[in-house]
Write a structure and sequence with these properties.
Strands 1-2-4-3 form a four-stranded mixed beta sheet. The longest helix is centred in the middle third of the chain and has 18 residues. 38% of the residues lie in helices and 28% in strands. α1 packs across α2. It is built from two helices and four strands. By secondary structure, the chain is of the alpha+beta class. A hairpin with a 6-residue loop joins β1 and β2.
Length: 90
Amino acid sequence: MKTTQAGTLESMDCLVTASEAEKGRGISITMEGTSVARFGEAILKTAKETLREIGVKDIKLSIQDNGATDLVLRARVEAAALRLLGGDRR
């Protein structure tokens, strides 16, 4: 199975790992890290919005968050997803 990553485990960043999902399975997101307990719902919402904006419907994401801002999270999710899918989908 193909996987890609974007980001780091440094403070104020996140590591997003994207994996292929079977067609029709939808979006699956797992999260862990220092900010998840407090900001988990916001992280989930941002990740799903970002995937929807670039047209991704079936993907597995793992997000390891260490205090990334919304802008950083969006960039990491988009980069990991586009790397997995092989390029720009806009």
